[in-house]
Amino acid sequence: MPDPPMLNIYGIHRMNKSENLELTCRGRQYLRWTTPPTSTRFSTSDCSGSGLFCTTLRIFNATVNETGQYQCSYRDLKVEDDDRVPFVPSEKDYEVVFIREGQRVVIPCRGSLENLNVTLHTKYPNKELHPDGKDSWWDARTGFTVPSHLISYAGVVSCQTRIGNETFKSPLYIVAVVGYKIYNLSLTPVEVRLSVGERLVLSCLAHTELNVGIEFNWTHSGQALVSLWNSLELSNTLIVENVTVDHTGEYTCTASSGQMEKSASAFLKVYEKPFIDIEEPWLKVWEVNVEDQKSTQIPVKYLAYPDPSFKWLKNGLPLKEDYRIKQRSDALIIRGVKEIDAGNYTIVLINKITKEEQRRSFQLLVNVPPKIIEKEVAVDTDVHPYGSSPTLRCTARGFPTPALIHWQWMSKEDCPEAFSEIPLKKCTGWRDITNSSGHNPVDRIVTDTDHAQKKIVSSLKIKKAEARALYRCMAANKVAEDSRIILFHVTRGLEVSMLPSNEPVEEDHVALRCRADKLIYGNLAWFRVANISKSEQLASVQPCRSLTLQPPSQSVLATQHGTNVTLELLLPNASRQDEGLYACQVQNIKTKERTCLLRRLSLRGLEAARVVNNLTDQKVNISATISLLCDVAGTPTPTVVWTKNNHTVVEGSGVILSQQNHVLTIQRVKKEDSGLYTCTACNSRGCDTSQAFLTTEGTEEKTNVELIVPIGSVVIAMFFWLLIVFVIRGRKRPNGGDLKAGYLSMILDSEDMPMDEQCERLTYDANKWEFPRERLKLGDPLGRGAFGQVVEAAAFGIEKASTCTTVAVKMLKEGATSSEYRALMSELKILIHIGHHLNVVNLLGACTRPGGPLMVIVEYCKHGNLSSYLKSKRGEYSPYKEIWVWGRLPSWTSAQERLSAPQLETILQSTDDDHLTMEDLISYSFQVAKGMEFLSSRKCIHRDLAARNILLSENNVVKICDFGLARDVYKDPDYVRKGDARLPLKWMAPETIFDRVYTTQSDVWSFGVLLWEIFSLGASPYPGVCIDESFCRRLKEGTRMRPPEYATTEIYQTMLDCWLDRPTDRPTFAELVEHLGNLLQASAQQVCVDLGNSMIAVVTLLSEQSEKCSRPLSVKMFEDIPVAHSSVMVSVCDSTNEIHKPHFQLLRCKSKESLASESSNQTSGYQSGYHSDDTDTPIYANEEVIMNSPSSLSLFIVQYFTFHRYYTLRTMETQAIEICSL
Questions:
Q1: Alpha helix positions (H), 955-1068
Q2: Cellular component terms, GO, for this chain's entry (predicted)?
Q3: Which of 465, 522, 527, 470 is nearest to 492 (CA)?
Q4: Whole-prediction pTM
C-alpha cells in the first residue's frame, strides 16, 4: 500500500467571500479530487514533477456554496476487501453532521467494501431507514445520502450492514440542524457625530435562528471595507482610529447566511471643531393659557458638537426645580401652566470642550381668564335705602387685562324668583345699561384699568335707588369671561304711618301701620308707651330698653308684600281713650338689637259744618266771567254742593268747579245764567247753607264766539294740510343717477315699483340684527366721503359670546340729513334681503335704536379693495409659480435639522403669499362671477361693479361690496360729471349711459371691464382716452378696449362677449361661472413636476417667455398708450384701430382629464370666443409633455400645494382639482 497523498493545507481553513484559494496534493500514484456537491467555482490542473504525482485545485471568487470538504485520493488503487471492517473507521468517537432545511444530507459512513446492504439507524427516537435508490442511497465513497427532513428530528445516527451472520455498525454521527434565517440586524449607534481625531466604533449584531453561519461585509458610501470576523458572538465591530472629515458618510453592515441577507446603516458626521449653533428665527414671545390641560413645550432647536451642557434662567435667576417643569437642552416643558410661570426665560448652552456659551431668551405670557374679585368676598344681596345714590363695583383681574366691564340689568318683574332661593339660570331677560333704562336711573359708569396689577375696576353709579332689580357685570378677555349677579334691594327702612290721615278725627277707623324690610328686621310688635307724658318731646326712634311698653288691647293685622312686612294696629271708632304714645318694636336680624318707632295719636273733636263767609248778591255783564267762593269749616271736613234755583250745578262748558267745589266759576256769562245760587256744606254733625242772587246786565251779541274759534281752527288746519300735500307732490323725485351718486348702488330689480317703495316694503328684524353700541369699539377710518364713512371696529360677541371680531362699520358723518339717514337704512334692509354668500360682504348686525348714530356692521376684509391690491403686487407677478424644496435630506441630519410637516407647510404658505400668478387672477374673476350670480338670483342689480368695489379677504377670498357712503364721488376721478350727477362712465354699459337703464345685463358689461382691470393688474380702463361725449358715441358704435397685458385669448374673448352691443347677447353670470370654472380647472391641471438630483420644481400654468396664441379677431378698438405701471395716466384723445393677432403659447399637459375639460367647454351653455363656426385649435391642444415620472415625494408636494392653494374654492362647489399625470 503506497503512502497516502499529502495536501498543502490541513484541517479547517477559513476564507472571506470573494477570495481565491489554491490547494495542492502530492502522492505516489495518480490523484483525483472530491469536492462538495455545491461547489462550482474551481478548476484543477496537473503539477507533476520531481518524481511525484501532483494536482492543483483553484477556487476563484469564493461564495458560501464553496463551503465543504475537499479530498485528494489515489485513482485506480486496487482495493482489498476486508470483511472484518466494512466501514471506514473514524479518528473520533463521534462526528457532527450539519444539515440544512430542504436539502439532502450525506452521513459520511464510507465503506471499505462495495455493494453492501447498508441501512441508516437513528436514535432519540429509534428508527431505521432503508435506501430507496431515488431519494436516499448509500455509496462506499461518500456515505449514506438522505433528505434532511427524514433525520432532522433525530439526535444521533449511524450506518449498519450485515455480512453473513454478523452485524457491523459505523461510528456515531451527531445531527445538527443548520439554519439560515436572520431575524434582525442592528447597527449601533445609528447616528454618530465626532470631531477630527476621535475614534469611531460601530457594532453590527445579527439575531438569527440556531446554527446559522453569518458573513459580515462593510461598505462606506458604497465602497467595500475589509471586515473583521467574530464567529462566537455573530457580530462584527468596525473601529476607525483618528477620524477625519473624509470619513463622513454612510456606513452599511451586510449580514449574509447564504440564503438570506440583511443590511443596516449608520451615518457618521465628522466636524472640524466643536461648536454650538442655535437655529434662527427665534420666537421671542410665547403665549399660553393658564392651567392648559396639554403640556406647554417651548422647543430649542440647535446644532452642536459635542452635546452641550445647559441651564435655564427665569428673570435672570436659575430656574428652580419643580415637578411641573421639565428642563431639557432642546425644550422647556411645563405641565399645567400657572400664572406664576409667566416671565422672561433664558436658555444657556455651554460647549463642554471650548466652554463657549450661546444664549436665547423669550417671554412667556400666561393668559389668565378674568375673575371678578367681589364674587369671593361680597354678599349676593346689596340692600340700599330708598332714594340713596349707591355705587355698584366690579373688579376683574386677568391677563390680558379685560378691555371693559359690561353692565346689564333685569327688573324683578322679568325674574320673579330673583329674590328667592331659586337659582337664576332660568332668568334670561337681561338688558344693557343706558342712562334712562331700568327703574333706577344711572348716573354714570367709571372704569379704571391697572395693567400693572392686571385688573380693571368698573363702578356703576346709581342716581337714585327706587326699585329692586338685578344687575350683572361681565368681564371678558381672549381666554374666557366671568360675570357677577348683584341682587339690588331697595328698602325704605323703618316707617310708621297713620291712616286714614295724620290728623284723625273722633270715631274714625284709625290704623297705625308699621312697615319694615324683612331682610333687615323681624319680630314686629305694637306696644303702648306708659312712662312718657304728653308734654315730653322724644325722637321718633328710641331704644326699646328705655321705654315702658304695654301690649295694646286692640287687634293687629300682619301683611307681607314682597320683601316688606307690615304690622297694623287697628283702632275702630277711635275715641279720646285711644289717644296716647304708641311704639312699634322691631329687631335687627343681624345685631339682634331692638328698636322702637314712636307715634303719638291725637284725635280732633267733632264739629258741625258751617259756612264761614256769607254769599252776597252779584251783578255781572253778559259775556263776562264771575267766581263765587264758599268758605266752609267743620270736623270732619264738610262736602260742598252748589245749586241754582234748587237744581244741582254740574261742570260743563263755561262752568268750572274747583278747590273741592269751594269755588264756582262761570265763563262767558249768558242771560240764562242769572238766578239764585246756594252753597250747601255738610258733614256727619250737620249742614249749613249760604245764598246769593246773580243778575245779568247788557245785551247778547249775535256772533257766537264758541263756534267761531273751533271752526276757524279747523279751516286753518285744513289750509296747512293742503299746502303740505302740494309741496310734497311738487318735489322732484331723485332719478337713478342721483340716487347712485348719493348712496345706494345695489337696488332691487323690480320693473315698476319705485326704489323708495321697495325699501319701505323691506323689513328690519331688530331681534335678529340689532347689536348694542356699547360692544363696539370704533377704530381707524377705512374710507370717508362727503356724507358718510366706514371705520374699522372691534365687536365683542357679534359672532360668539366670548370673542372679539374685527368688523367694518358704515355710518353717517355728523350733520347728515334725514334723506341720507333713510338711504343708509335702505341699504341695511337690502343687505338683509340679499342674504349670506361667501363672495359678498355680508351683514353682521346694525345699531338703529335711538340714543346713538345709525351703524351698519359688515365683514372686514384686511387686504382692502382689489384694485389697490393688484397695483401693489405688480412687482411680484409671474404667470407661473416656482417652489424649491430639497429633494433629499442628507441622512446624517440630526433630529434638530429635519424639516417637519408644519415647517414644510410654512414654506408653501410663504411662497403662496409672495407672488401673484395667473391662477390667482382667474380665481378672482371666478369668485366675482359667483357672487354676481348670487346677487342676480336675489333680483339685485349692483350698478357699480368695479375692482374698487371688490374686497380681498383672507385665503384669497374676494367679496363684492359697495362702500358708497365712504367714497366722495366728487373727488374720485373714476366718476365723471353728467348733468347734476357723477357717474362711473368707464364701467357703464351704453344703454345705461344713454337711457339710464340698469339691468343684470348692464352688470355683465361692468364685469367685462372688471376683468380688464384684473388682468392689467389694477390699471385704469381706457388708458389715455378722453372720457367725453365722443367716448360715449364711439362706445355705442362698437369701439372696445385693447387686450390687457396679462390676459389670454380666452379671457379677452370673454371680455368682448361681455361688451356685446345687445344686452341679450351677453352671457349670463351663471354661464360666466361655468366658463371661468373650466378655465380655473384647466389652469390647475397645468401643474407639472420635474425631479432633479437635488430639488423639485413645481411650475403652474404659464412660462414667463410664453407667447399668446389665439384665433383671428376683428374689433374696433380705442387707440391708447401702453398700460404703464404707475398711478399717473396720461390722458390723450383716441382713434380707432384694428386689433392685431396676438399669440399665446401655453404650457400644455395631456391627460384624460384635460380632454374631458375640452369636451365640456365645447358642450357647455356658454362658449367664450366660439359663437361662429370657428375651427381653430383650442387653447389647450392635444400636445404631450414628456417628463420623467415624479417620485412619490414630489407628487405629495404638488398635491399638498394644490389643495392648500384652492381649498377655499372647493367650498364654493367648484369641481375637484386634479393633478395631471405626466
A1: 990-995, 1000-1014, 1029-1037, 1049-1058
A2: endosome; nucleus; plasma membrane; receptor complex
A3: 465
A4: 0.36
CB 110 within 8 A of CB 143: yes
SS3 1073: helix
Query: Hey, CA dihedral for 551, 553, 554, 560, is it positive or negative?
Result: positive
As given in the structure block, the three cell numbers for residue 523 are 319680630
Q: Do residues 661 and 700 make contact, with C-beta atoms less than 8 angstroms apart?
A: no
Residue 339: DSSP 8-state: G
Residues forming a β-bridge with 587: 522, 594
DSSP notation for 939-969: TEE-S--SGGGEEE-GGG-EEE---GGGB-T
Query: Does the structure show a pLDDT above 90 at 933?
Result: yes
Cβ-proximal residues to 213 (8 Å cutoff; 6+ apart), any chain: 64, 67, 178, 257, 258
3-state helix, strand, coil in the chain (%, to 5): 20, 35, 45
Assigned superfamily of 765-860: Phosphorylase Kinase; domain 1 (3.30.200.20)
Nearest to 644 by CA among 686, 600, 692, 573: 692
Which homologous superfamily does the CATH classification assign to the domain defined by 182-271?
Immunoglobulins (2.60.40.10)
* Domain 495-531+543-601 listed as CATH 2.60.40.10: yes
Residue 1050's φ and ψ, nearest 5 degrees, are: -60, -45
Q: DSSP readout, 391-430?
A: EEEEEEEEESPPS-EEEEEEETTT-GGGGSSS-GGG----
Q: Which residue, among 310, 309, 339, 334, has the nearest Cα to 322 in the 3D structure?
A: 334
Per DSSP, the three-state class of 101 is: coil
Domain range 6-74, its CATH number among 3.40.50.300, 2.60.40.10, 3.40.1170.20, 3.30.230.10: 2.60.40.10
- The position carrying cell 297713620 is 498
Could you give the 3-state DSSP secondary structure of residue 216? strand
Q: Supply the CATH classification number for the domain 283-368.
A: 2.60.40.10
Quick one: pLDDT at residue 725? 80
The answer to whether 535 touches 527, Cβ cutoff 8 Å, is: no
Residue range 1071-1114, pLDDT digits in tens: 999 999 999 888 776 643 333 333 333 333 333 333 333 433 45
The superfamily (CATH) of domain 94-177 is Immunoglobulins (2.60.40.10)
Looking only at the bridges linking them, the beta strands covering 958-960 and 976-978 are unpaired
Please report, in range form, the residues annotated as the binding site for ATP: 783-790, 810, 948
Q: If we measure between CA atoms, which residue out of 856, 787, 791, 843 comes closest to residue 819? A: 787
Q: Put residue 660 in one of left, alpha, beta given phi > 0 → left and psi -120 to 50 → alpha.
A: left
Residue list, annotated binding site for Mg(2+): 949, 962
Between 915 and 947, residue with greater pLDDT? 947
CATH superfamily assigned to domain 865-879+915-1087:
Transferase(Phosphotransferase) domain 1 (1.10.510.10)
Cα dist. 349→218, 275, 281, 313, 345 in Å?
A: 37, 11, 17, 11, 13
What's the rounded mean pLDDT across residues 865-880?
87
Q: Annotated catalytic sites, by residue? A: 944
Query: Are the C-beta atoms of residues 349 and 276 closer than 8 Å to each other?
Result: yes
Whether the predicted pLDDT of 1137 surpasses 50? no
Which DSSP string do the residues of 666-704 spell out, in sequence order?
E-S--GGG-EEEEEEEEETTEEEEEEEEEEEES---SS-
Residues spanned by CATH 2.60.40.10 within the chain?
6-74, 94-177, 182-271, 283-368, 380-419+429-491, 495-531+543-601, 607-697
Q: Identify whether the C-beta of residue 1071 lies closer than 8 Å to the C-beta of residue 1160.
A: no
The yes/no answer on whether domain 380-419+429-491 falls in CATH 3.30.565.10 is no
Q: Name beta bridge partners: 1151.
A: none
Higher-confidence position of 80 and 764:
764
- For 274-309, write each residue's pLDDT tens digit: 888 888 888 889 988 887 778 888 899 988 888 899
